[in-house]
């Protein structure tokens, strides 16, 4: 991006960003914590060291070492992983604009705020928002359960970034009392966790959680996975031992282990079936319980919440793995027995979806267990505790691959940011310019998210247990009772528990 310079003073020093031709100011790679390396590796984040002079903020900071299969956007080298990026229509101390803080997804193993998918220029400009994106520790750096390190370090990083926002965002034109956290997939799971995390209290006023995953680990499961991972690099699951292993080597080992998870089903159960090597650990402290139970006591009742999931949450993974149309009856049975709730869960699905193919049953139970029911339960729990909760389901289909993706997981992200031409945007929406219908669909979704960030009202009634009103997002959005009622009835009365260890290592 080219343009004229603009400077803002932060608590650690002055940063210099760029203002584009339309007046939007962008600051990239601003540290919110010290690099978590050396003696700070696997530690809780520490405030950034102050600097003298003016720090250039034109480029994204380096990404955290990843264990995902795709290349990571942004700078490949460097240790200053914990940075924020700010887009502001009106930097300065007096604008008082609402602030939206985006937390990226990536299965707690990958992801970067430098991804062009998360370019917030359009969102900030059209929405009249100050938008902040951030990097947090993922993979083993952020979520491996080590014997002598704080658990859930990635969540601690997010809390540190939110503290930075509270202390500094006024200088960028934002109002620290009008902060909305927004995230998708692992980002939404992070937000669900932050709702009940004691250190996060008071750091945000509103929350938008898109596709909340039901991925939470017991300490026993997390510790067993960490022990196996450490063994892959000839180390022990301790800070001293793993600190001798290069971060990228550890991330690569985690990536290789993830590719072998099907061989660990007998040991790690649902975590292995869900291809999840990392997740927030229910440690009884930062994460006191799964969020759909933790928020029922009203600890987050003062936060305005919007929850959204997509209709075809698991379709993307079916297409990516080449399994769409190829699921056997044996595979469907194994999935139902692993993920359907209660001892009669398999029968309930088969009876409730008569005539459904093996592939349809497989996809439905995965979508329900991993995303749709956790999202619904979070809205229900927040509403029951007296907090305002709004529910939405994205129903509009992707035009990519002849419509094979349906209303898939992650489709809401390029629609929200308007980043149709980014690599991930093209993968989710297809090559070429978006149709007028897709642009209108995206504009409508963006207006709802922006309105919620401004005043807590997305434009439809709040969720109530009796009516269960849900916004059905598509080219022609409507409001109706919750559309996945069949699945809701199957899960009614059943808990969504943390994934647990099936059989310990011997």
Automatic annotation (TrEMBL):
Residue ranges occupied by any Carboxylesterase type B domain in the UniProt entry: 7-321
Annotated SUPFAM superfamilies: alpha/beta-Hydrolases
The keyword Repeat appears for this protein: no
A molecular function (GO) term: hydrolase activity
Enzyme class: hydrolase
UniProt keyword annotations, A-Z: Hydrolase
Bilayer-crossing regions: none
Sequence similarity: Belongs to the type-B carboxylesterase/lipase family.
Protein name as it appears in the record: Carboxylic ester hydrolase
Organism for this UniProt entry: Streptomyces albireticuli
Primary gene name: pnbA
């Amino acid at each position: 991006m080219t343009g004229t310079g603009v400077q803002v003073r932060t608590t650690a020093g002055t940063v210099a960003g760029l203002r584009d031709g339309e007046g939007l100011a962008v600051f990239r790679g601003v540290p919110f914590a010290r690099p978590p390396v050396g003696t700070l590796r696997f530690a809780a984040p520490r405030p950034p060291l102050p600097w003298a002079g003016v720090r250039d903020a034109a480029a994204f900071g380096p990404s955290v070492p990843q264990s995902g299969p795709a290349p990571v956007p942004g700078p490949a080298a460097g240790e200053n992983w914990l940075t924020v990026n700010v887009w502001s229509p009106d930097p300065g101390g007096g604008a008082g604009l609402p602030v939206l803080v985006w937390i990226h997804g990536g299965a707690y193993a990958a992801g970067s705020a430098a991804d062009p998918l998360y370019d917030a220029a359009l969102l900030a400009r059209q929405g009249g928002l100050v938008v902040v994106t951030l990097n947090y520790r993922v993979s083993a750096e952020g979520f491996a359960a080590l014997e002598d390190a704080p658990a859930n370090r990635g969540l601690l990083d997010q809390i540190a970034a939110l503290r930075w926002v509270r202390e500094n965002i006024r200088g960028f034109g934002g109002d620290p009392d009008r902060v909305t956290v927004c995230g998708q997939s692992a980002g939404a799971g992070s937000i669900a966790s932050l709702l009940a995390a004691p250190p996060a209290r008071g750091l945000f006023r509103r929350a938008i959680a898109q596709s909340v995953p039901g991925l939470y680990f017991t300490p026993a499961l997390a510790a067993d996975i960490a022990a196996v991972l450490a063994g892959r690099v000839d180390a022990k699951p301790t800070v001293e031992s793993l600190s001798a292993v290069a971060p990228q080597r550890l991330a690569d080992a985690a990536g290789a282990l993830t590719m072998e998870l099907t061989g660990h089903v007998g040991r790690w159960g649902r975590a292995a079936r869900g291809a999840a090597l990392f997740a927030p650990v229910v440690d009884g402290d930062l994460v006191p319980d799964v969020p759909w139970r933790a928020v029922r006591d009203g600890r987050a009742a003062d936060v305005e919440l919007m929850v959204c999931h997509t209709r075809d949450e698991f379709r993307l993974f079916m297409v990516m793995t080449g399994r769409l149309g190829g699921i056997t009856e044996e595979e469907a049975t194994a999935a139902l027995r692993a993920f359907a709730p209660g001892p009669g869960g398999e029968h309930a699905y088969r009876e409730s979806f008569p005539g459904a193919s093996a592939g349809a049953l497989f996809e439905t139970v995965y979508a329900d267990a991993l995303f749709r029911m956790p999202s619904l339960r979070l809205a229900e729990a927040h509403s029951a505790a007296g907090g305002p909760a709004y529910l939405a389901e994205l129903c509009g289909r992707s035009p990519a691959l002849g419509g094979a993706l349906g209303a898939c997981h992650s489709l809401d992200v390029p629609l929200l940011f308007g980043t149709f031409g980014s690599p991930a945007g093209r993968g989710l929406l297809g090559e070429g310019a978006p149709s007028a219908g897709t642009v209108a669909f995206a504009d409508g979704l963006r207006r709802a998210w922006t309105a919620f960030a401004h005043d807590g009202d997305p434009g439809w009634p709040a969720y109530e247990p009796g009516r269960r009103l849900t916004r059905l997002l598509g080219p022609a959005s409507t409001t109706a009772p919750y559309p996945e009622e069949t699945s809701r009835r199957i899960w009614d009365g059943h808990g969504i528990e943390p994934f647990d260890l099936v059989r310990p290592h011997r």
